[in-house]
Design brief:
With 542 residues, the protein is of the alpha/beta class. It has 18 helices and 20 strands. Helix 2 crosses helix 13. It is globular. The chain binds thiamine diphosphate (TPP) and magnesium ion. Thiamine diphosphate (TPP) binds next to helix 14 and helix 16.
């Protein structure tokens, strides 16, 4: 008779607290910043706050998530957020929606009441914590046991970084942090997916054969660090390059001869602007993002549509054409690796766009135009400075007078949700200490998350905050005729009198200057490019 098997040896791994195990997971991912706004349910995380981490406090949760979004985009790494149970997540929701649309990798932890009192519907209980942020998180979980929290955080990090990137939420009961668990093994998960070679080859052949190709470039190009590769592809094929509608990042230099302009989020106008092209390639962009109703074809008659995207949803809903799914950068590199075919002899070099005419300052006593303000900014800003914009009616003016010509120098949100730009600029400035960050914000937009000024001041970030003060929600007034309003007719809820941004800056610990004289603006902006702490410039525009 064989001897019975001996029982397994007692488990030898030394146990650690959930809190230590989670901090180790973050360290393994290179995460050293915790963006948050604390409450009682989160305090246990901060017992003996670890010396190698930095807590970045936002005074409202929209600010916390906005800062974490800018930081994640500018570091190409998931950011880590800690919010207060239900009310904190609620405040953050607008910017969680934006992070989802921006494809920003972000792990959001939310406090929850202690497990033992959950049956009694306690104070601060988030009753359906995992449902609250849906559908704008890729995954949300409240682990079944305290010991499962570290693995949930690791999984959340991997999922957040897996394209299409986005926010995830882990709800953590307050007593979990001190429970004991086994430490987690460090591991790596690859994220970039290579596109299917035969489909990509068909796209390559179509590009070689096209007579007048056009590229429509979306946010995923810059996000994927593919700016220079896309430029090489466009030059190889002599493609005219448009920026996709509502793009949160720029993917192509606006001063390049192949640059063809910005597509508006309107079906008929897109078809009009793409007229004459026989092949349209949407790169890292939806085909297409619309804002208003439209009818008829999506691309010009006779043209064919192709798409490179990392996002299965975007690929699936495209109304026509062929979509190749995979990393945008790897797709472009694989296209560049194909032998360069002889250029179709009928393909001509497209004519470059006309340069924008310079604007003159207004006569003395008159308010300056936004065009003048942005031209002044373009004149004084360092070439590698970063513009973070949220100034809706100034966008088309900016596209004319404040050209973006280098990678990773422009951020705005892809969602349309105001309250992102100001905190995102703070996050970008925190991530890029050597670079000048310029927050270009409308007066209305600034007020959705104005407390970001306080975080910028506390962090002593050398950033310029330019507020375009036109005393109104101009974009809505300009948009109203599309809904049948008489142009210029009064519109309820769109006037913003009596906002004083210099006073608001002072109240948040920032310096501030008001400029109403057009000729004084260049000097003040030049000073803002040199500041060593945040400086707000309130620009009175017409
Ligand atoms: C969270 C949120 N609320 C409301 C809106 C609607 N909205 C779109 S543009 C706009 C006006 C923004 O005003 P401002 O920042 O002053 O820019 P301006 O239009 O004056 O250029 C508003 C309120 C929105 N996009 N997001
Ligand atoms: Mg305004």
């Amino acid at each position: 008779m064989p001897e019975p098997m001996p029982p397994p040896a007692p488990h030898a791994t030394a146990l650690v607290s959930v809190r230590e195990a989670v901090l180790d997971v973050l360290r393994a991912h290179g995460i050293r910043h915790i963006f948050g706004n604390p409450g009682s349910t989160e305090l246990p995380l901060f017992l003996d706050f670890p010396g190698d981490f930095r807590y970045v406090l936002g005074l409202q949760e929209a600010v916390v998530v906005g800062m974490a979004d800018g930081f994640a985009q500018a570091t190409r790494q998931a950011s880590f957020v800690n919010l207060h149970s239900a009310a904190g997540v609620g405040h953050a929701m607008g910017n969680i929606f934006t992070a989802f649309k921006n494809r920003t990798p972000m792990v959001i932890t939310a406090g929850q009441q202690a497990r033992s009192i959950l049956p009694f519907d306690p104070f601060l209980h988030s009753a359906q914590a995992t449902e609250l942020p849906k559908p704008y998180v890729k995954w949300s979980v409240e682990p079944a046991r305290a010991q499962d929290v570290p693995l949930a955080i690791a999984r959340a990090l991997h999922l957040a970084m897996m394209p299409p990137c986005g926010p995830v939420l882990v709800s953590i009961p307050a007593d979990d942090w001190t429970a004991l668990t086994e430490p987690l093994a460090r591991r790596e998960v690859s994220t970039a997916l290579r596109p299917q070679p035969d489909l990509l080859d068909r796209l390559g052949q179509a590009l070689d054969a096209a007579e007048r190709p056009a590229f429509v470039v979306g946010a995923a190009v810059d996000r994927d660090a593919a700016w220079h590769d896309l430029l090489a592809l466009a030059e190889r094929h002599r493609a005219r390059v448009f920026v996709a509608p509502m793009s949160g990042r720029h993917g192509f230099p606006q001063d390049h001869p192949l640059f063809a302009g910005f597509l508006p989020a309107m079906r008929e106008r897109i078809v009009e602007l793409l007229q004459g092209h026989d092949l349209v390639l949407a790169v890292g962009a939806a085909a297409f993002t619309y804002h208003v109703e439209g009818h008829g074809p999506h691309i010009p008659e006779g043209a064919s549509l192709f798409q490179l995207t990392e996002d299965p949803q975007t690929a699936a809903w495209a109304p026509l054409g062929m979509s190749v799914l995979g990393s945008v950068r790897l797709s472009i590199l694989d296209l560049l690796a194909r032998p360069a075919a002889a250029i179709n002899p009928r393909r001509s070099m497209p004519a470059p766009r006309r340069a924008t005419a310079r604007v003159e300052p207004p006569p003395p006593g008159q308010r300056m135009s936004t065009a003048w303000a942005l031209q002044c900014l373009a004149d004084v800003r360092p070439p590698d400075s970063i513009v973070v914009e949220e100034a809706p009616s100034a966008r088309p003016v900016m596209q004319q007078h404040l050209p973006i010509v280098a990678p990773e120098t422009f951020y705005t949100m892809c969602s349309g949700g105001l309250g992102h730009g100001l905190p995102a600029a703070v996050g970008v400035a925190l991530a890029q200490p050597g670079r000048r960050v310029i927050a270009l914000i409308g007066d209305g937009s600034a007020m959705y998350a104005i407390q970001a000024l306080w975080s910028a001041a506390q962090l002593a970030l050398p950033m310029a905050i330019v507020i375009l003060k036109n005393r109104r929600y101009a974009a809505l007034q300009e948009f109203a005729p599309a809904f049948g309003f008489t142009p210029g007719a009064a519109l309820e809820g769109c006037d913003l009198p009596d906002l004083d941004f210099v006073a608001l800056a002072a109240g948040h610990g920032c310096s501030g200057v008001r400029v109403d004289d057009a000729r004084a603006l260049p000097g003040v902006l030049a000073q803002a490019m040199q500041c060593t702490a945040p400086m707000l410039v309130e620009v009175e525009v017409a």
